[in-house]
Design goal:
214 residues; mainly alpha; two-stranded antiparallel ribbon; elongated; binds protoporphyrin IX containing FE; transmembrane; cell membrane; Formate_DH_gsu; Cyt_b561_bac/Ni-Hgenase; formate dehydrogenase (NAD+) activity
């Protein structure tokens, strides 16, 4: 379909941020799991040696969390909780079976995505702070042993929570046809919006077929 008939859902800057986060996130998770959980040590081979995995992990982690936070700030206005959201959540069975007529109309993001958004906010901030606290030899010497132990525990819990939500996010993104194409090329069709995010069409910014602005 011609771009003129399509609606801009993700600006170029956000798309670059998103796929950069995916690439650096892959390296962060593989190297992190390799030295955090002994049974996943074999994953460290992507970095060459276990020492290299330890060196790469905090750098890749920062390269993942910082653009993710930028993206979260830019998407904040789309993720505010709205009055229809609880009703949508209670109608989750109809959402799964695509009974659109029984689901309240939602806007730019559905409540499931909004929960995911909040989880990414909390876990990316917690992972960054605790990661810096345990970063040897640069920052860890400034904290006592008890603080570091808490940091390690919180870091591991947040990493597992983030991973679970990323898997759910991946599944949701690939389940909804046209969603990944939207994140790759920026545009979605009017029919896609009507089916998945009908209130998005009421947004005066989206009504005009504007060219992409950053
Ligand atoms: C290969 C893995 C991934 C795929 C295929 C994917 C796909 C997508 C797609 C299609 C969207 C747009 C959804 C829509 O338009 O409704 C999106 C949004 C988003 N993704 Fe991903 N994603 C992946 C990994 C990640 C990771 C690792 C993170 C961060 C940890 C992430 C964070 C986000 C955020 C913050 C949004 C904006 C959603 C919002 O504001 O609620 N994604 N992703």
């Amino acid at each position: 379909m011609h771009k003129q008939n399509m609606i801009l859902r993700h600006k170029l800057f956000d798309r670059i941020c998103h796929w950069f986060v995916v690439a650096t996130g892959l390296v962060t998770f593989l190297t992190g799991f390799a030295f955090f959980f002994p049974s996943f040590q074999w994953l460290g081979s992507i970095a060459g040696t276990p020492q290299m995995a330890r060196f790469v992990h905090p750098i890749a982690g920062l390269m993942m969390c910082l653009p993710l936070m930028v993206m979260l700030v830019r998407y904040y206005h789309h993720n505010k909780w709205e009055k229809n959201d609880l009703t949508w959540m209670l109608a989750i069975k109809d959402v799964m079976f695509e009974n659109e007529d029984k689901i309240p109309a939602i806007g730019h993001y559905n409540p499931g995505q909004k929960v995911l958004f909040r989880t990414f906010v909390v876990t990316s901030i917690a992972l960054t702070i605790t990661g810096i606290m345990m970063w040897q030899p640069y920052f860890a010497p400034y904290f006592d042993a008890i603080a570091i132990q808490w940091a390690i525990l919180i870091h591991a819990i947040c990493a597992v929570i983030m991973l679970i939500f990323v898997i759910v996010h991946f599944w949701m993104a690939t389940w909804v046809e046209g969603s990944v194409a939207g994140m790759l090329y920026g545009y979605v069709s009017r029919a896609w919006c009507k089916k998945h995010h009908p209130n998005m069409l009421n947004d005066p910014e989206l009504k005009t077929n504007k060219q992409e602005k950053h």
